Amino acid sequence: QPKKKAAFGSVGRRIPYRILHVINQDGESLGNMHRAEALKLMDQHGLKLVLLRENVEPPVYRLMTGQQIHEEQVKRAEKKKASPKPGVVQKELSFSSAIAKNDLEIKTKQIAQWIEKKHHVKVTIRQAK
């Protein structure tokens, strides 16, 4: 089975492109350069080349320290956790503020069942007229 490509990670020395657009660790553009120049720059500063955008011409790489790479990976992992998962079902329930006690109890039981099934529940309460 082929390995899944990491969304973000250190590229190291394996760069399939001849011409790269390079950005330094401060976010400033260094322009387009040949792969050999980028590798020489990487070695001189003790940094790593990381692929940012592959689908543009030329592909964009950034020089980063190990710490910057780690921080970016943590940031992306937190962002991925925060986004809703494709398999999660969201249930929505709305009722009036003048709801009868019995109806409220039934809807509360329904919400409890949905939560047990690990559904996301959204409750809306409308003000009675």
UniProtKB/TrEMBL annotation:
Gene Ontology cellular-component terms listed: mitochondrion
GO process annotations (BP): mitochondrial translational initiation; ribosome disassembly
Coiled-coil residues: none
Keyword Protein biosynthesis: yes
GO MF term set: ribosome binding; translation initiation factor activity
Tree of life domain: Eukaryota
Region forming the signal peptide: none
Domain Translation initiation factor 3 N-terminal: 11-78
Keywords: Initiation factor, Protein biosynthesis
Record-stated family: Belongs to the IF-3 family.
NCBIfam families reported in the protein's UniProt record: infC
Entry protein name: IF3M factor
Source species: Anthoscopus minutus
Biological classification of the source: Eukaryota, Metazoa, Chordata, Craniata, Vertebrata
